[in-house]
């Protein structure tokens, strides 16, 4: 049996989360202590809050007085409602919360039935209860209950960087799936904006939105995650980042943006996308060939059906890149013209070999080459210092094959880099 304990400040939020499931017939209330439960079994959330407040001191110093506990037996354990209630009450007694006000809920919205407990960690005098080694004591208690009642030993699912990421299954444990997917995406992929973050999350039917406001007079900046089905419809109540873990928080995600900037190399993705584009005839063919090469294309449309955003999720390099990062020929406007406009494919520079005298545009030998995209000086510096490949000519490095080293060009490039560094000034 796995016990998960969340310590928070919002009593109403914890009661509302569970109460909504009960009132939607996705569970039931099994029991309570010092909190009145209506005979019809419905959750009167506002009344429950008042019952808790009548016990809790109005002027307590504890900033996070709410404990939200879930007890999750092994799927092979077949327990009755009475069994669940006995386990919950005995667990709370052994943890030292048996005399506190609490409510026990059984959740039936997934195949693996489990229980939630909402209680408080301050007594009627405003003194906080003993929370020393709370999680360690909780683990010892669940081990004891497993042995006493002959239950299967259930362990937390361990997530590693190699764990496969699966699309969300609305019939399963939605919160656990969202939690694991968000953690794995953060461990595995490099992205630099919220749009790129959402692009890779959307592949697994998850959406993330920022939320800003004020709580107790303080500015609040957070993230909220939504679980969706294949049609883009929300299938559960949204999850605040704090309910998933620190890795899902706004601070953690924005920190990931900054770290990714130091490690992103656009060239492998750009090379693959350009190669696929040269072979593709239309939108469906292009997307299919991209998928075969390990790249997903996420297109964003406005209300008029026009493409306003393109993002490439490269599962080979674990990099998420907006099309504009690859160059204007990979931007939303370029694909809008190709897919929904005149059908003209974006012009891409053809590969350059060391012994070729001229360059050609893809599909047209008479057209002179267009100017290559810029804005990738940081990636180039990083790759020049760390890659084992031969140096390449500035601007033509994307399609260079074989040795193409030009000493004069490289000397000029390094001189420009040194000038940029001198202009930066002191780092604060």
Give a short overview.
The chain is 37% helix and 18% strand.
Give the rounded overall mean pLDDT: 81
Which class do the helix and strand fractions yield? alpha+beta
Count of individual beta strands: 11
Low-confidence stretches: 350-406
Share of β-strand residues:
15-25%
Q: What share of the residues lie within helices?
A: 25-40%
Secondary-structure blueprint:
Layout: E1 2-8, H1 11-23, E2 27-33, H2 45-55, E3 66-72, H3 81-95, E4 102-107, E5 114-120, H4 134-148, H5 174-188, H6 194-202, E6 206-215, E7 218-227, E8 239-240, H7 241-244, H8 250-261, H9 267-279, H10 283-292, E9 295-301, E10 307-314, E11 319-322, H11 323-326, H12 332-340, H13 377-386, H14 407-424
Antiparallel strand pairs: 1-3, 2-4, 3-5, 4-5, 6-7, 7-8, 9-10, 10-11
Helix pairs in contact: 1-2, 3-4
Key features of this structure:
single chain; 428 residues; alpha+beta; 5-stranded antiparallel sheet; 3-stranded antiparallel sheet; 14 helices; 18% strand
């Amino acid at each position: 049996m796995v016990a998960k304990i969340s310590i928070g400040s919002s009593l109403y939020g914890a009661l509302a989360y569970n109460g909504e499931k009960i009132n939607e017939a996705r569970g039931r209330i099994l029991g309570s202590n010092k909190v009145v439960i209506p005979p019809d079994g419905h959750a009167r959330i506002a009344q429950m809050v008042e019952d808790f407040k009548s016990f809790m001191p109005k002027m307590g110093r504890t900033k996070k007085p709410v404990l939200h506990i879930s007890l999750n037996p092994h799927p092979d354990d077949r327990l009755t409602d009475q069994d669940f209630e006995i386990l919950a009450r005995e667990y709370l007694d052994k943890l030292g919360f048996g005399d506190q006000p609490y409510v026990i809920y059984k959740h039936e919205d997934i195949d693996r039935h489990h229980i939630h407990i909402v209680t408080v960690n301050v007594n009627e005098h405003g003194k906080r209860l003993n929370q020393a080694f709370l999680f360690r004591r909780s683990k010892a208690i669940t081990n004891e209950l497993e042995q006493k009642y002959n239950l299967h030993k259930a362990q937390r699912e361990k997530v590693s960087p190699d764990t496969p990421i699966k699309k969300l299954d609305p019939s399963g444990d939605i919160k656990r799936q969202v939690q694991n997917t968000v953690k794995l995406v953060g461990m595995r992929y490099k992205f630099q904006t919220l749009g790129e973050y959402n692009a890779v999350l959307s592949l697994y039917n998850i959406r993330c939105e920022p939320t800003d406001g004020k709580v107790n007079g303080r500015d609040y900046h957070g993230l909220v995650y939504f679980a969706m089905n294949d049609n883009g419809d929300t299938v559960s109540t949204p999850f605040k980042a704090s309910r998933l873990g620190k890795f899902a928080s706004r601070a953690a995600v924005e920190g990931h943006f900054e770290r990714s900037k130091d490690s992103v190399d656009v060239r492998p993705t750009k090379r693959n996308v350009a190669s696929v584009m040269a072979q593709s005839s239309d939108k469906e063919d292009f997307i299919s060939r991209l998928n075969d090469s390990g790249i997903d294309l996420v297109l964003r449309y406005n209300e008029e059906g026009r493409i306003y955003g393109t993002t490439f999720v490269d599962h080979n390099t674990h990099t998420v890149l907006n099309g504009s990062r690859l160059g204007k020929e990979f931007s939303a406007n370029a694909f809008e013209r190709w897919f929904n406009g005149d059908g003209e494919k974006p012009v891409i520079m053809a590969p350059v070999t060391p012994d070729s005298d001229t360059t050609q545009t893809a599909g047209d030998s008479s057209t002179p080459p267009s100017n290559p995209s810029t804005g990738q000086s940081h990636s180039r510096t990083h790759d020049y210092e760390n890659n084992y490949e031969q140096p390449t000519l500035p601007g033509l490095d994307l399609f260079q094959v074989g040795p193409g080293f030009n000493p004069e060009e490289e000397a000029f490039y390094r001189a420009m880099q040194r000038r940029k560094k001198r202009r930066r000034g002191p780092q604060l």
